[in-house]
Give the backbone structure.
Amino acid sequence: MTENEDQVAGLLLAAGGGRRLGGRPKALLDHRGRPLVEHAVDVLRAAGCTRVHVVLGAAADVVRQKADLGGCVLVDNPDWAGGMGSSLRAGLESLSGTGARAALVSLVDQPGIGAEAFARVRGAYTDETALVSAAYDGVRGHPVLFGSAHWAGIAATATGDRGARAYLKEHAAEVSLIECGDVARPYDIDTVADLHHLE
């Protein structure tokens, strides 16, 4: 393991209740015969993250029972219904004190973004001041990497479903964009119409 490897932790946000999916928690959607949350953890590991924290919310007990999340640090977000911002705050808080110097953030409902895109973004990590984002035809998207120097600022502005959007906009000049449009498709599984993306 190189020194760099242990410094970038994977942070998977998997707390969503799937409100527009009729209340089906996104973590438990079936993809390639397994819960979507397992697939997302595998992608982070394949991209080189040896430490993976998973933020759970909706049906957290069921996700624990049905998904194989061995080796992950499971983080409960009791405020998950308030939106992704609360999950991002809970996840970053869970990483403080672990020695991680950056968080590579993944959303559970984006199975079209595979290990290659995550590895590219992770590869742009320099130190705790890093701010890196995947881009699709030059437009910022996921995944994103937040150096630990930014965690407090992100947590202070992460509200509702906006996550780190406000912080990234404010610090746009510092964000390194890494083009991933050739290796990933950044769709979300938000509505019943999106379920056709699952295999």
In short: The chain has a mean pLDDT of 93. The beta strands are 8-14, 30-31, 34-35, 52-56, 73-76, 102-107, 131-136, 139-147, 176-179.
